Amino acid sequence: MRKSIVFLAVLLFAITACSRGADKKLDAALAAIAKKDYAAALAVIQPLAKDGNARGQYMLGQLYLDGTGVPKDVAEAAKLFRQSAEQGNMDGQFALGKLYDTGEGVAKNDEEAVNWMKKAGEQGQVDAQFTLGNKYLSGQGVTQSDPDTAKWFQMAANQGHANSQSNLGVLFAMGKGVARNDVEAYKWLQIALDRGYIGAKGNQEALSKRMTEGQIAEAKKLAAAWKPAAEAKK
Length: 234
What we know:
Blueprint: H1 2-34, H2 38-50, H3 54-66, H4 74-86, H5 90-102, H6 110-122, H7 126-138, H8 146-158, H9 162-174, H10 182-194, H11 201-208, H12 213-225, H13 229-232
Helix pairs in contact: 1-2, 2-3, 3-4, 4-5, 5-6, 6-7, 7-8, 8-9, 9-10, 10-11, 10-12
């Protein structure tokens, strides 16, 4: 029994080491893409994708979707995104969800779009969280729900997504999906502004007209102390 445990530990370590090695290669491939050296990028990405690397499958799918370094082929992109998504890669899940949302490369299916986006959002894929917030806000492919709208915008806002922060501020100002709280609303609008989202300015100015100077000062203090969730954990 003890030998089996030791062997398993060694095997897991080897798998982890291989994964890290693949990630380093894929990071280098991203750098090659940024330099438009697509041949070098594909020389790395294609073998890894063929061997079942989920991140490699997602990256190759994105190249086929955009027609970058390879002929544009949305059906091939969809196949690769699905392979990645089914292995749990959150970017692959979101990419597949977007295809179901638009009907590119697959038959349009709002339920499947939401299903894959939720899988991605629950893992922390911030664009999926923002998209789900908008879907629950409008009722597209889901039953309209203010609490779910607030939930997904909050998740994205906590990660630093400025548009979600602005939207969350509006929800707090209106009391939609969350209890109305002007200080919290102003705080999130200020955070969005601090991150460069100028769309929050008009809403913040309108909100400030019903707030006291003390409330605004408190909100600004809270905004200045705010950190994205990943930084707050450190």
